[in-house]
Amino acid sequence: MVNIAETCADNNPVQLITDYTVRENSVGDAQMLEDRLSAIKEKTEVTDIYADGGYYSEEVELRAEKNDITMHYTNMTGSKPDTEKIPFTAFTIEDHKIIVSCPQKQRPLSSGYNKETHILTAHFDLESWQQCPVKDNCPVKIKKKSAVLRISRKTIFAAEARERMNVRSERKESASRRAAIEGTNSALKCSQGADKLRVRTKVKSSLVVGMKMIGRNIRQMVRFFRGDIRKKAAEILGNANQGVTVPI
């Protein structure tokens, strides 16, 4: 299997492949991305990555957070949250480990994080909870002495990613940017022959695939020097030449 990363900024006259990895086909997309995020960040100082839902995992979100990268997904797998309940993202949570307060600014009596199970737990005052105007939609569980919220860190990451994805403008942008790389995949197969290698073993395959990636980038640069650039990028460059401020 081969996974690639490519630039996708609107003001780029051409887009270039910045990273690739060759792995056994038993390795999932999310694992491949997790393993390459730090290297991609080091090489490109990337701030945002667009991918489909198959690349989502708690580990990817953690690695992205450590590298100051925001992940954007075109879709999300798994069960959807109960829309009648207050979303977990409405709670104030510090470092994905400590529940600081509820959406009504009620601070818990105690809050903790289990390093082995990765479960966050918060105990809220029962009497205060019973007087809360949104208690019927609250996801806490009622115990004898307190109202308890238990949530896994994985659920928090999934909720945050789904919330970003469900913003209409965000979803449209993610789909548009993600779709562009399918053209690159097609070009690598059709013009570079990346779908049928004439070598075996991971090392040889990695070397050959690397040469094909270089070939693709050279073709893109040739297009640029010939003036065959994308219409949107041409408009941006034209505005820049006229003295209009262009976001970088």
Keywords summarizing the entry:
10 strands, disordered C terminus, two-stranded antiparallel ribbon, elongated, 7 helices, about 20% strand, about 250 residues
What's the topology here?
Blueprint: E1 2-6, E2 17-22, H1 29-44, E3 48-51, H2 58-66, E4 70-73, E5 92-94, E6 98-101, E7 110-114, E8 119-125, H3 126-130, E9 141-142, E10 146-152, H4 153-166, H5 168-190, H6 202-225, H7 231-241
Parallel strand pairs: 3-4
Antiparallel strand pairs: 1-2, 5-6, 7-8, 8-10, 9-10
Helix pairs in contact: 1-2
Task: Describe what this molecule looks like in 3D.
By secondary structure, this protein is an alpha+beta fold. The chain is built from seven helices and ten strands. Strands 7-8-10-9 form a four-stranded antiparallel β-sheet. Strands 1-2 form a two-stranded antiparallel sheet. It is elongated.
* Outline: elongated
**SSE pattern:** EEHEHEEEEEHEEHHHH
Q: Determine the number of helices (DSSP H or I, runs of at least 4 residues).
A: 7
Could you give the order of strands across the largest sheet?
7-8-10-9
| Uncertain regions spanning at least 5 consecutive residues | 240-248
Question: Percent of residues in beta strands?
Answer: 15-25%
Residue share in helix:
40-55%
Distance between the termini: 34 Å
